[in-house]
Every structure is written in structure tokens, then in C-alpha cells.
Amino acid sequence: MKGALRAGGAIAVVLLLWEVLARAIDMPLLAPPPETVAQSALALAKSGELLRDTLASLQRLVVALVVGVPLGAMIGCALGYWPVLDAMASPFVRMFNAIPAIALVPFSLLWFGVTEFSRFTLLLYTISLTVTISARQGVRSVPGLRLRAGATLGVVGVPAFLRIILPSCIPAIIVGIRTAIGLGVMVVVAAEMLGADSGLGYLIMQARSQFNVPEMAVGVISLGLLSLLLDRLFNGAIESFVPRWSVRRRIR
Asked: Model-level pTM?
């Protein structure tokens, strides 16, 4: 209850500041007040455009998460567990980590054209790389004492990986997934701005071409709400099904 009241108070303060700034600037075409944006959101919702574009972005993001998270977790765990493999791949992981997906958009369009697959590859690149780095760090952070204790009980090799290392690095993987969700939303909007015919990025670009700032604001706010919703749903699923790795329990 207190959390809901605090969230409501924060939203009220942001809306008040937004209203004050809009009135101070006094340029509705460039800085529309909250009520104008709300009217545009209502119109887009009634026409079905907002729901269609939100679902399109959500579908692209969920598909990339379903494929990229397991892929990144497996690669990251392998790199963290085998030092030789990590020594070979670490320079490439560091290099690709410094290259944002947006910089790869021209290559994606050149190789795969203006297709769904080109957008998927950008999302997969970002999500899998983010989870790979988190999983690798999680495996490397497993205390050696825990492994030695397992070895004294005969738990070595693959059993040690499955029963000691993997459970120990799951919190790091969870953090990586939550980070990947936010980065994935950033990438999906960039991918949709180039040649897509649906999605929130497409909605923002269409509004820009028509100089419709309120609709642009609706698209941007919808992206933030989409990221927040996915993060809350994922965190809720962790707390419901695997509470031992929930954020609240780790904080306690």
C-alpha cells in the first residue's frame, strides 16, 4: 500500500512539473502539456493503432528474449567455467560489448534487407551479449570454498557445474536478463524506425513525419511503460516460482 502511494505521489509530481514547464515554455507544438498527450493517447487507443504497435514491439522483444537469454546464459557459463575458452573469447566479448547494436544497423540492412529477421538479429545480438557477460561474471564469482566442499563429497566435473556453479550464478543471470530487457526496448525502437510498418518505433517516426509531437510523446512514454511492465512481470515471476532468487529475499 505504501509503495503504491509513493508511486502515485511520484507520478503526480512529474505530471505537475511537466504542466508547469509546458506552460512556461508556452509552445504547444513543441512542448505539449500532459492533457494534450493524454488526448492523443486516447485517440490512438480508440483507433487501435497504439495496441497494434505495442503488441508488435512486444512480440519482437519476447521472441528475442526467448532465444537470446538461453543462448547468452550457455555461452557465459561456458566462458566462466573453462579458463582456456574464456581466454580465447574474452577479447571478442569485450570488443563486441563496446559496439552498440545501433552501429550495426547498416550491416543488418545490407545483409538481411528491410525484414523482420534483420530486426531480430539486432535484438538477439544485444540480449545474448548482455546475458553472456552477466553469466560469465556469475560463474567466476562462485566461491572456491564452495567448489572444494563439493569436491570433498565427490561432486566434481559436470555434476559440480549443475549442482554448485549453475545455482550460484543464477542471480547474476537474472540481473543480466533485467538489464537485457531495458536494452532490448532501446534496440527494438531503433530497429523499427528503419523500414518497419508496425511497432512503437514506427509510430514515433510516423508522428515525426507529420510533426505530431503529442503522438511522438505517446510512443516514447509507451516504450518506457513497456519496459517497466516486462521488468515487473519478470520480477514477479521470479518471486512467485523461484523465491530463493528473488530480489527482496537477497536484500533481506
From this structure: 0.84
